[in-house]
Amino acid sequence: MKAILDQKLQQVRPKIDEIVKDLHDLTVEIKAEEISQMVSDLRNRINEPYMFVIAGEVKAGKSSFVNALLSTGKEICKVAPQPMTDTIQQIIYGEKEEVVVINPYLKKIYQPVEILKEIAIVDTPGTNTIAEHHQEVTERFIPASDLIVFVFEAKNPYRQSAWDFFKFINKEWRKKVIFILQQKDLMNDEDLAVNVKGVYDHAIKNGIEEPKVFAVSAKMELEGYEANSGFATVKEYIHDNITGGKAPVLKLQNNIDTTRNINERIGNALGDRQAQYELDIKFREDIRETLEQHEKSSQKQVDILVENLLAGYDRITRAKEEELAAELSMFGLLKRSFSSIFNKSSSIKVWSEKFSKDLERDLQNELQSKLQSSVGDLADSIQQMAKIIDLKIQNSQTVLKNNHEIFSDIAERRSNVLKDLQEAFTKFLGRSENFADRELFPGSEALSPNLLTGSGIAVIGTILMTVTNTAVLDVTGGILTAAGLLFAGVSTSSKRKKIINDFKNEIESGRSQINDEVYGKLKTYVANIREKLEANFREFDNLLESENKQLEKLVGMHESIEERLEGCKNELPVV
């Protein structure tokens, strides 16, 4: 039977070792140094014997318990009235007695004791020790342990520091635990039974099913009173549940459970990171949708603005076209020629100059009036787009906090990127040149400096009014110049039809120019503002792209480890 067990273990152990190696690679990848050290310790001890970790408070009798359990007749762990265990002592099998100091907080004690071929014992400093690093080092041994032997002082097993440490072990690692009430020789049987029951109830309350509680006296065991010391039941438990060939299998089972526990913690942390990534993706999509929605709204405002301009333009030019046709009719020309004999101010030249000035005045008044009523709506639409994005940045949702157990560095990096985004966006909104768009509207350079100070979005209306006014003036100026040239050539009625047609062509050309200049440039302006707003998110987008790649890789590593652990667990023999 033992040979079969050994053969199966030889097949499974390398697989578990490879999985633990991959888990270590995963911890390195996520830069979890503390967990990485745990996994490294776990891997280093995979070929060591089944490990007992003796935990409890100072002066609970832990060292005496170890000496009595090994029954060598020697004081392997030093015992004295004052606390002696100021370091972790790992007691393992060796052909000869030897003490090797690993570092100031750890030493290995080699002993030629038969039971140490199957188990190793780690005696730890008290949980309420003054030196904090002792508990930190003790906690490093907990993940790699196979059995926690929690030793209480029989007279008072209710000290808060001891139970707090127990809760840490049980919550974080869910290790197999037995409870020892040491120094039972200092109590009467009735009080001892009460405390045994109290520890049992405390353990049940803290999530242990069927707790194993033993009352012992190391003093009685070492002095030869084995029948009453209580150690017989402890040794029987160890024999029935751990030694006798079962320890190596149990060791690997515990390695699998501990590896799974660590991988599960990483998985939960990756879940938090994934949740934050999905929220950030949703946030970013919301930004894009908001920008797209407001861009469409602004583009509609451009449509309305240009429609209003063209409607006003059409009304004025239509009236002027009718006036021109009437003046250039046969009757009109005859009347104008006859009147000019007596009054030179009635000549066609004088009339044409007045016609041009009236057209200029009427067009400018009409178009500027339309601009003033429409540009404000468009500017408000663009400003609203910028302000809503600013508000959304401020209210972005965070679930991955800077104090996250594993991914605090990722949370901090994200927090810094968002902070930079907020600052950059606020600065962007405050800079008028971001909204002047000088390449598209060169005329904006003529704006007086005081108009371009203060909030950037406040200058939008000024920029739009300036560029649209410029376009209107360019158009009306062109029409008037052409009209003047036409009227200068009026001499006979034979040219009347050509003059009217040419005027119509100039009017249509001016209409097209207004449509192209104002409509085209304002549409481009709105699109450019959206692109500039989007550009502020470049670093955030880079973060999301990096997160996507990292999460895909890390989740793949995590899931592979989990899947292979399940396979190894099924391959282990049942003991």
What does this structure look like?
- The chain is of the alpha/beta class.
- The longest helix has 81 residues, at 247-327.
- It has 3 domains: 1-35 and 543-575; 54-259, P-loop containing nucleotide triphosphate hydrolases (Rossmann fold, 3-Layer(aba) Sandwich); 273-536.
- It contains 17 helices and 8 strands.
- An 8-stranded mixed beta sheet has the order 3-4-2-5-1-6-7-8, sandwiched between helices.
- 66% of the residues lie in helices and 8% in strands.
- α1 runs parallel beside α10 and α10 (247-327) packs antiparallel against α12 (348-394).
Structure described in brief:
By secondary structure, the chain is α/β, with parallel strands linked by helices. Helix content is 66%, strand content 8%. It has an 8-stranded mixed β-sheet with strand order 3-4-2-5-1-6-7-8, sandwiched between helices.
Task: Provide the fold topology.
Layout: H1 2-29, H2 33-44, E1 50-56, H3 62-70, E2 88-93, E3 98-103, E4 106-111, E5 119-123, H4 132-141, E6 147-153, H5 160-173, E7 177-182, H6 189-205, E8 213-215, H7 218-222, H8 226-229, H9 231-241, H10 247-327, H11 330-342, H12 348-394, H13 408-430, H14 433-436, H15 460-488, H16 496-535, H17 538-571
